[in-house]
């Protein structure tokens, strides 16, 4: 029994570190080793499934399902894989400012229009996509203290595809109380947005005379095509590098400290977002297609702690991120796993997130200033605070299966990053809150 | 000059204390009863975390930390 426990802690340390190499793929194989089971003797496949429904008030809704499978072929030679399916639909903020009069915009496809009522945040209601993702990961020891892992991830959606490969190395030290790890990942993404990639900072063409469909609108079509890029960059490449340490502090406390470096190159602009140009009355004169730099270097420091009280387990993590777009953020998250019986628990959670705006973020551009080289009114890279409140209930069944249900309430509160509203914009809500509800079911066997 | 030496001694002393502290961290094999529990795994809620990360990746300006930040998703 003691030996089994010893194996479990090794597995725990190694898997905690290896899970970094694939986001999540490797995370569970050995994590489910409980006091009463030695997973090294369990040659069956372990399957975890989850189905999540996400719904924002009057905006996006999403359904996402995951099937994760893993198997230990003996002596910690572990194969794991994951299939993810998600579908999105609904409306997303276009970046245009609200107005006191109804406004008409051209959809990103150029094939239709949408109309925004007065005093309302303009939402492009054609947001729709379906994505399929597949990961496979292999890990194995190469010596008593060393372990390697490698994996691949493929993702495909209507207008976006991605392939990523990763590799990692873990070494255990200090009587296996310490594990150090390093990992490397390359991702190659390709975009093909409907309607093409807009010419940076070109003005949205709106046909104000009649419907845009049909072949009679040659002049509009020509004008729309003139705002589309004919060549240029349609890829996005990411290199991720990670270093980390996992340390057992004492009988009740384990922690992990990671540093992540990420270099992204390519088309980083959102082809569906615009920035309004307004006059001194706050009237929107036109909408420019946003433009972001084609490079971004990001840094992450992540610190996670787990503490075992008499019965409950407390999880506390903190992440500090910063990058050369001048976005910096703090995220703090905590969970308390509270056993109700020997086979059930409840887990309340809370997360606070705060970020500063990118240096090129602007809620609008005034017509008396020159057009900047880069500009985006996407609130997601503006000054922002979010809160997440959650709770999970899980029950283990007698046949070693388990089921769980989880709910979350997510509130995004965009803030003014120091921009002075002009004219009618002073009376309009430029930083509208977004609220979302999440419900999720889990089943493992 | 004196101040510089004090800073150097302080730095060396703190380093030694820290290094000594590191070797004192951790537990003996027979003390792993709690830490080897599934609930003490750093990634026990792995699927939940990946779903949360997908939401945060598509709704916030920064991401990553637990793993690689590359999303493989056009949602951001």
How is the secondary structure organized here?
The complex is a heterodimer of chains A (445) and B (76).
Chain A: H1 2-18, E1 46-56, E2 61-72, E3 78-93, E4 103-106, E5 113-116, E6 123-141, E7 146-157, E8 160-173, E9 178-191, H2 218-225, E10 235-250, E11 253-266, E12 274-278, E13 284-289, E14 295-308, E15 313-323, E16 328-339, E17 344-355, E18 365-366, E19 384-396, E20 402-414, E21 434-444
Chain B: H1 2-24, H2 46-59
Briefly, what is this?
Chain A has 445 residues and is mainly beta. Chain A has helices at 2-18, 218-225, and strands spanning 46-56, 61-72, 78-93, 103-106, 113-116, 123-141, 146-157, 160-173, 178-191, 235-250, 253-266, 274-278, 284-289, 295-308, 313-323, 328-339, 344-355, 365-366, 384-396, 402-414, 434-444.
Major sheet description of chain B:
none
Number of strands of chain A: 21
Q: What does the radius of gyration of chain B come to?
A: 22 Å
**Discrete helix count of chain A:** 2
Estimate the helix proportion of chain B, in percent: 40-55%
Biggest interface in this structure?
A: A-B, 107 and 52 residues
**Mean pLDDT across residues of chain A:** 88
Return the string of H and E elements of chain A.
HEEEEEEEEEHEEEEEEEEEEEE
CATH topology of chain A: Porin
User: Which secondary-structure class do the elements of chain A indicate?
Assistant: mainly beta
Description:
The complex is a heterodimer of chains A (445) and B (76). In chain A, 6% of the residues lie in helices and 53% in strands. Chain A is mostly beta strands and 445 residues long. In chain A, a hairpin with a 4-residue loop joins strand 15 and strand 16 (328-339). Chain A has a single domain (2-444), classed as Porin (Beta Barrel). Chain A has a 16-stranded antiparallel β-barrel. Chain A has a 3-stranded mixed beta sheet with strand order 13-12-18, with no helix packed on it. The longest helix of chain A has 17 residues, at 2-18. Chain A has helices at residues 2-18, 218-225; strands spanning 46-56, 61-72, 78-93, 103-106, 113-116, 123-141, 146-157, 160-173, 178-191, 235-250, 253-266, 274-278, 284-289, 295-308, 313-323, 328-339, 344-355, 365-366, 384-396, 402-414, 434-444. Chain B is mostly helical and 76 residues long. Chain B is built from 2 helices and no strands. Chain B has helices spanning 2-24, 46-59. At the A-B interface, helix 1, strand 1, strand 2, strand 6 and strand 7 of A face helix 2 of B.
């Amino acid at each position: 029994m003691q030996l089994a426990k010893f194996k479990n802690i090794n597995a725990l340390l190694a898997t905690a570190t290896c899970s970094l190499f694939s986001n999540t793929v490797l995370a569970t194989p050995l994590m489910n080793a409980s006091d009463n089971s030695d997973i090294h003797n369990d040659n069956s496949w372990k399957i975890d499934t989850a189905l999540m429904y996400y719904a924002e008030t009057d905006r996006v809704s999403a359904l996402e399902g995951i099937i994760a499978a893993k198997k230990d072929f003996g002596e910690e030679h572990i194969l794991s894989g994951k299939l993810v399916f998600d579908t999105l639909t609904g409306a997303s903020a276009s970046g245009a400012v609200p107005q006191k009069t109804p406004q008409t915009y051209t959809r990103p496809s150029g094939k239709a229009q949408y109309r925004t009522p007065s005093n309302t945040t303009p939402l492009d209601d054609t947001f729709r996509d379906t994505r399929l993702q597949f990961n496979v990961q292999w890990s194995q020891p190469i010596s008593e203290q060393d372990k390697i892992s490698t994996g691949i991830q493929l993702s495909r959606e209507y207008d976006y595809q991605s392939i990523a490969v990763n590799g990692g190395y873990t070494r255990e030290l200090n009587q296996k109380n310490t594990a150090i790890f390093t990992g490397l990942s390359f991702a190659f993404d390709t975009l093909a947005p409907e309607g093409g990639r807009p010419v940076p900072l070109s003005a949205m063409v709106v046909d104000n005379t009649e419907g845009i469909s049909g072949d009679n609108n040659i002049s509009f079509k020509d004008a729309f095509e003139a705002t589309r890029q004919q060549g240029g960059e349609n890829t996005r490449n990411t290199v991720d590098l990670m270093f980390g340490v996992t340390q057992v502090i004492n009988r009740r406390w384990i922690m992990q400290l990671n540093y992540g470096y990420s270099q992204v190159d390519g088309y980083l602009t959102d082809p569906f977002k615009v920035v309004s140009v307004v006059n001194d009355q706050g009237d929107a004169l036109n909408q420019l297609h946003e433009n972001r730099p084609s490079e971004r270097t990001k840094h992450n420091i992540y610190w996670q702690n787990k503490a075992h009280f008499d019965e409950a387990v407390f999880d506390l993590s903190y992440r500090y991120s910063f990058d050369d777009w001048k976005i910096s953020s703090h995220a703090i998250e905590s969970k308390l796993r509270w056993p109700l019986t020997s086979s059930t628990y409840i887990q309340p959670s809370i997360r606070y997130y705060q970020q500063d705006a990118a240096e090129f973020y602007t809620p609008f551009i005034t017509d008396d200033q020159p057009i900047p080289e880069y500009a985006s009114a996407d609130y997601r890279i503006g000054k922002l605070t979010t809160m997440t409140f959650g709770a999970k209930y899980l029950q283990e069944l007698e046949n070693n299966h388990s089921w769980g249900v989880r709910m979350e309430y997510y509130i995004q509160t965009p803030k003014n990053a120091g921009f002075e509203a002009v004219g009618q914009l002073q009376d309009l809500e430029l930083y509208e809150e977004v609220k979302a509800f999440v419900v999720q079911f889990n089943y493992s066997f | 000059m004196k101040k510089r030496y004090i800073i150097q001694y302080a730095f060396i002393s703190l380093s030694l204390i820290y290094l000594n502290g590191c070797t004192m961290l951790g537990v003996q094999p027979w003390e792993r009863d709690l830490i080897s529990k599934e609930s003490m795994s750093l990634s026990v809620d792995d699927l939940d975390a990946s779903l949360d990360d997908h939401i945060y990746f598509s709704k916030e300006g920064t991401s990553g930390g637990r793993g690689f930040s590359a999303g493989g998703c056009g949602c951001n």
